[in-house]
Design a protein that fits this description.
The protein has 248 residues and is mainly β. It has a single domain (9-247), classed as Lipocalin, CATH 2.40.128.590. The chain has helices at residues 21-24, 52-62, 69-77, 148-153, and strands at 9-10, 14-15, 33-34, 42-43, 64-67, 90-96, 104-111, 123-131, 138-145, 169-171, 177-181, 186-189, 196-197, 205-214, 217-226, 241-247. The strands form three sheets. It has a ten-stranded antiparallel beta barrel with strand order 5-6-7-8-9-11-12-14-15-16. Strands 1-4 form a two-stranded antiparallel ribbon. 24% of the residues are buried.
Amino acid sequence: MSHITSQAYFRAVAVLFSISSIWLQGCSADTQIPQQTRPKTLAEAPSERLTENDLIKFTSWLVGRWDNIAQVQAEIDSGVAESDRRHRYAMQYTAIQAPSIQGRLLAIENYDDGRGFEGNMQRVSLHRFMLSEDSHFILHEILFLKDEAFRKSLAVSLKPLEMITEDDIRARESCRLYWKWTGKRFEGATQQGACVTNSYMDRNITVEGLGVLEPNRLMRHDRNFEMSGEEIPHPGHETADKFIRVSD
């Protein structure tokens, strides 16, 4: 399996967000979120190596129920037109114990019909986290289940995921996020231009992402680009989606 080296991480410039008092509650004065500009430069990998305990901390911070309701309400309160507001989105992260799968697995139950957890669960996605071979990063992969009927059955129960093997899944290493520990929080990014897909459109595009994880706070920003480098507009999502943990 390929791995990232000290020459393969890019700098995400930081900028302070102050979307709402709920989002900022408990944050230190110098808390910043990476700026939503496309990363263009490579940076040295952090000198500090990560351990299994860091991986455990990372995944334990993710487990729970997340909602972007504070960000949506802030846009309503500030008078953003409904057509320009972001969509209400909630997620339930659950740890999956699957002994036959390398790394640590989390299943995400996605509630994105605009009603949060009061709405219907739309789909389940499966994510794997493991240390890079040089231990500088946590590798984050979205796993695709090959059996469509099995995938649909997860709407009833996640327990069958405990029995899956490497033969049941496929992953695109080119679309990994690489997470590093800054001393205060985890920051992640994809490799620029590496994730090429036609899963969302009738042509190849590149997908890039940034993320920040703090205790009880999660930011992510996914962006799509034409192969020419021109960004594909996604109204309401020009800036990062910000979630707060609403329960464990």
